[in-house]
Specification:
18% helix, 45% strand, outer membrane lipoprotein receptor (LolB), chain A, disordered N terminus, eleven-stranded antiparallel β-sheet, 3 helices
Length: 186
């Protein structure tokens, strides 16, 4: 084996190992949210109604048309992620980030979002440019290449909870508007 071949094999093994490492540990508090997502990416744009059930063992996400037809159903577990499209085609990957990039053409940073939707930086890395309001809640931060802007409910039953996340990694823009929250999951 030549040195060049050895370096290529070692680099491939390192990249494969990094792809399997989650961006953040699974958040321990279950929740269930319903909202709307707007994604713009190099290949186009997507607007979808969204339901996200987060539990300790798995995440389930539905991306749906305004009439309720499922465009994509995503399940994320310790064993990996699966996406089932509207035509019942299944995609599998080690993470939701890799899965959505492969199947949809844009990356959904779910491992980080499970913290961001709760108004917290992910514990996997120190956030940069953390901006906080007078209430000490994050208003903006940059983490793992994503710029995140937070908006919160000011009144009503969800006061203090995240109302909207605006994410931008330079190639993708994702806006998640949360219409309904339920702590504790289903």
């Amino acid at each position: 084996m030549t040195r060049r071949h050895f370096v290529a094999v070692a680099a491939a093994a390192l990249l494969a190992a990094c792809a399997a490492v989650p961006l953040a540990p699974r958040a321990p508090q279950p929740f269930d949210l319903v909202g709307r997502m707007l994604v713009t990416y190099s290949g186009g744009a997507l607007t979808a109604n969204t339901r996200w059930e987060h539990a300790l063992e798995q995440d389930q996400i539905w991306l749906m048309t305004p009439t309720g037809q499922t465009l994509a159903y995503i399940v994320d577990t310790k064993q990996g992620a699966t996406l089932t499209s509207a035509d019942q085609k299944q995609y599998r990957a080690g993470s939701v980030e890799a899965l959505t990039r492969q199947a949809l053409g844009w990356s959904l940073p779910l491992a980080l979002m499970q913290y961001w939707v709760k108004g917290e930086p992910a514990p996997s890395s120190v956030p940069q440019g953390l901006e906080q309001g007078a209430d000490k809640q994050p208003r903006a931060l940059t983490q793992n290449g994503w710029r995140v802007a937070f908006a919160y409910y000011d009144e009503g039953p969800f006061t203090g909870k995240v109302r909207r996340l605006d994410l931008n990694d330079g190639a993708n823009e994702i806006r998640l508007v949360i219409d309904n929250w339920r702590d504790g999951g289903t």
